[in-house]
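User: Okay, second chain of the day. Same drill as before: sequence in, structure tokens out.
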Amino acid sequence: METFAFALSVTGPIFLTLIIGYWLARVGLLREAFVDDASRLVFMITLPVLLFTKIFTAEAELGQELPLLAAGLLGTVVTIPLAWLAAQPLARGDRSAFIQGAFRGNLGIIGLAWAANAYGSSGLAQAALLMAVVTILYNLAAVTLFAVYSQEVRFSWGKLAKDIAQNPLIIGIVLALLCREIDLQLPAIVLQTGDYLASITLPLALLCIGASLDFSLLRRSSLAAFSAVGFKLLLVPAILLAFGWAFRLQAQAMGVLLLLASAPSATVSFIMARAMGGNSRLAANIVALSTLLSIITASLGLALLGVFY
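Assistant: Same drill. Structure tokens below.
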């Protein structure tokens, strides 16, 4: 019972914050223009600052996290082709939405928030490093999906490299690692300012995600949507945990791996499906449904991990 209470204390506040954001949007206190501007602020400024400060001030060294990074990378490499295979019985227009929703998780906000709630700054630093590695792989997979399914747009590998190099989140992580490597000493006033900016990141981002959700779509959820959500919330965590067990990760690293693997489908999957000329309504259904159900699967998974690992 204690382990489940702990698990619920990790996922519950995040879910309630999403619901508050959803309610504020419904009553008109969070307007679309504000949500757009706030989301851009989080992505461009406050989230990179959060990642930089947590990694820069973390006690653990990068070399100590290599088993965690390897487990996350290899597990994701396995899940992507499995998602592609699972999508083959669907109509061609539905496949891109299914694949994106099935493997691509909301690591940058919900995954990080869960890790921070569960394990504090050390867990957040581990999650940030894992997110950087997996995000690069997500982008590689996205380019492949564009090449296969896009009806209008084609992306090149050169554009992919440019996008990765210009990604503010990856820039923040790489800068933090470089500053640690050269043993840079930042003034306390700079770190304190960074903490101020970082402290608004997760609450603001969660409110924006909640404001963007449309749970009315759940009434039109199809078998394809439920299948993609089952893949994302059940199969993906199982595969990544299997790799974590094979690498003999410590309990906290396994918990971080589980929480990031259990994150609901990323909202960008809706954008990608629409850009590829796919079924954007299916993609939106997957995002809403996985967000609603992830609190149950992540809580149960974290509780079971505490009992058996």
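The chain has one domain: 2-308.

User: Thanks, on to the next one.
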